Amino acid sequence: MIRKSLLAASAFAAAALVTQAASAADLVRLGNLKFAHYGAVSYMKEIAGKYDLKIEERVFPKGIDILPAIVAGEIDVAASAVDAAIAGRASGVPIYAVAGFAKGGARIVAKPDAGIKSVADLKGKKVATPRGGAQELILLAELAKHGLSWSDRPGKDVQIVYMAYADMNQALLAGSIDAMSQSEPQSSQAINKGFGVEVVKPYDTELGEPVRSLVVTEDFYKKKPDVAQRLVRCFVEATATFIANPDLAEKYVREQMFKGQITSQDFKDAIGNSPYSYDISIEHVQITTDMMQKFGVGRMDNPPKAADWVKLDLLEKAKATKAAANDAAAGTVKAN
């Protein structure tokens, strides 16, 4: 009797372990940034269970700061501006771009009393931007278009002052810089609080509106294809949810990401300048690469060819699955 009971207990425990192992969600380690247009990427962790995933998010100051963590094997998927991903790939970081998640998200903002009404008016001024970010590339493209020279030392038409995103607004408020090439929602905050005025949304160069990229490690893409596909499906749903439900997007970004530090108007203005999206193209990544090389952003000895590392198969499958689900839901509603 005791032996039978022990055998039964052992069988039950073994079955429980098998069930637990079968139902354990796959862990995905996400590197993200604290910007309004990165909200849908952050929201993935809230719906990850639906895709049998557990997403652990780690927030970094800048996209290029995520790269060492990828090399160290601490991050599986990351959100960053395309230029940071390009610089990483050029330096040997084993990543693939699998989706885009926002476009735009930049503004050149000046002090209200600086007399700066256009890019041409930046001559003789100090302009801040983060080194190696999308905002630097956009700024340099605008200066070149308007025939202005630049350096991080005095003597050129425009003096570039390299600063972290988090420091630029305070520097503009304090008057230690004349203008800044800033991201969102920080540029909207400067305008709404009255210590900044918009000079231009800098999308009229060959680069157009910069796209943010969702990248995964090569190992994650090659060795865990099923997990990678479920992750991209999760991303597509999170993005579609934010696009369809802007009130939810605002609540999540303002309360969960920024802990009430930005206003409703800040959020609306920020997303108006950096709408959520899914797409990225090989052509856009190649144009960005060429412009980075032209202006010395990222300091690449061997610029990567976009076609070699932009992999859109997971995104196309995820979008097709989402479209089919939407069609089925629409058919059900129509039938009822």
Automatic annotation (TrEMBL):
One of its GO terms (cellular component) is endomembrane system. It is found in: Endomembrane system. The keyword Secreted does not apply. Keywords: Cell inner membrane, Cell membrane, Membrane, Signal, Transport. Belongs to the bacterial solute-binding protein SsuA/TauA family. It holds the Pfam family NMT1_2. It comes from the Bacteria. Its main location: membrane. This is ABC transporter substrate-binding protein. Residues 32-256 form the Solute-binding protein family 3/N-terminal domain. Residues 1-24 form the signal peptide.
